[in-house]
User: Fold NADH dehydrogenase subunit 4L from Halosolutus amylolyticus.
Amino acid sequence: MTVATVLSGLNIVLLLVLGSVWVRNYLEFRTPLTLGLLGFAAILLLENLVALSFFVSMGMLYSGSRTAQLAVLGMRGLQFLALVFLTVVSIR
Assistant:
C-alpha cells in the first residue's frame, strides 16, 4: 500500500501541474474545452486527495485482501501513466 500511497501523491502533483497549465490556457483562450479539462483535473484531484487520506488513516481497509491491494495498486499505476502522458502533451 506504500506504493499506492506514493502514486496517489504523484498523481496529485501531476494534476496540480495540469491544472496550472489549463488555467493559464483558459485565461488566454476562454474555450469550453479548457474549462472542461479544468473540471476533469479538479475532480481527479479531489479523488486522489480522498484516496490518499484513506491510505494514510485507514490502511487496514485493504490489509485483509491481497487481491484488493493489487487492484488498488494497479489502478493507481494506470492513472499515473495516463496523467504522465496527459502532462507531457499539455506542457508541449
The radius of gyration is 15 Å.
